[in-house]
Prior knowledge:
By secondary structure, chain A is an alpha+beta fold. The first copy, chain A, has 3 helices and 7 strands; from the N terminus they run E-H-H-E-E-E-E-E-E-H. Chain A has helices spanning 29-43, 48-53, 128-134, and strands spanning 6-11, 56-57, 60-67, 77-85, 90-98, 104-112, 115-116.
Amino acid sequence: MQPELAITIEVAPAFHDLDPMNIVWHGHYVKYLELARCALLQKYDYDYPAMHASGYFWPIVDLRLKYVRPAAYAQKLRVSARIVEWENRLRIDYEIHDAGSGERLTRAHTIQVAVDAVSREMQYLCPPVLWQRLGVQP
Amino acid sequence: MQPELAITIEVAPAFHDLDPMNIVWHGHYVKYLELARCALLQKYDYDYPAMHASGYFWPIVDLRLKYVRPAAYAQKLRVSARIVEWENRLRIDYEIHDAGSGERLTRAHTIQVAVDAVSREMQYLCPPVLWQRLGVQP
Amino acid sequence: MQPELAITIEVAPAFHDLDPMNIVWHGHYVKYLELARCALLQKYDYDYPAMHASGYFWPIVDLRLKYVRPAAYAQKLRVSARIVEWENRLRIDYEIHDAGSGERLTRAHTIQVAVDAVSREMQYLCPPVLWQRLGVQP
Amino acid sequence: MQPELAITIEVAPAFHDLDPMNIVWHGHYVKYLELARCALLQKYDYDYPAMHASGYFWPIVDLRLKYVRPAAYAQKLRVSARIVEWENRLRIDYEIHDAGSGERLTRAHTIQVAVDAVSREMQYLCPPVLWQRLGVQP
């Protein structure tokens, strides 16, 4: 059985994330996803510095966000991230919930591919270092 | 025949849009899309201030970005935006191309729905003001 | 004796705060200052929502940042904020230190003035609500 | 006589630069300054890529902004930047004016120092490459 490749972090929107409607501007959610993604990868010792040390960049090639309800200043949010693909590409699914009511506010995913840091060539299979760190089989 | 509901703007990534790989951080593209979307809506006199004056907010409810090639500092980019749905929701499709080579770097779409500014209720049909401004029939 | 009008928060730079030199882009420190300022004002029940409820906006009219050493990805930082003027204007001084070594990385200040939310007139004396919340005499 | 080491660019605040008061959030002005600074340095063929090619980083060590009047969505602004020191450090002074009325909205300065890209040592005298590019004598 595969391990549970997931994490949940808490985030509270800052004043500088608000727009004139007094809600979080839709583009700032990309930062919240990144905070959860980095926390998740850090847990498996494969966050950005470790990625680079392993000889790969992992650019985002696909990003999707579905906004169900807005988020407000200082609202306690739970951002969950879960790795759901790791063979040919790294796909992470996200959900953002209100920490108090549990209501779901946002769903999202990101897809990353490995790029060799020297040749700059995209890898059609994820490099084994990812599987080792995550403790998974491709 | 429907009018051509489209625009193309030029954008050149700023230094503050770059990440440690010396390319534009993926989240900053959301700003480029917004610049094109606002220019397009301005052309039809239905940009943010006009939206609010008409009694509606138009939050983004769906955002998708596909990154084909990275963008660099000061690279001349063309961001095209085209309105492709306006009956129940406002869907805009985007493409970002290198202005020199014409190479496509990014594809994206956003979907917005109208929300009544007073009742805060989501509208399942776009308000007629949108169709009037765009010169379209639902 | 005046109370200690200060707070210290912890911040760790996110990947999206880094620039091509792999350090925090200088403009992002404004966000760290704001996080500390809001936490400090929240402690005295006079954060942004309370400011607006009291009938005043408090725009920043002066901002200064002195950068002594750079900050890196995920580096544990302590951001301290202290209210040092409250009679005619609200001045807050800041220091950012490395949490591990205690080394000072950045010094800063912000100055805010009260603006009446209805008349939009700038107040040359801070409104008494500020003093009451802070528990100070002008 | 020294040449006029100055430039003026036009900027119009984007929707994503606005805060809940419907004005530009104070931290976003740092981006407007950077756009003017980069345009100015580009004029003298010493923008970021050229700085790095010359073997130096030029981090900002001091930033000051004085906000006189707020800026609104799509307001046409003129951002002027002028190099006023280049011997020991690079100091640039900025002014932001409303393009229509000519009213001054913001004053600012930035100070940069040269850091050797290899040794990471701060230079107490600006490297001669700066003077050559600017056509000035120290």
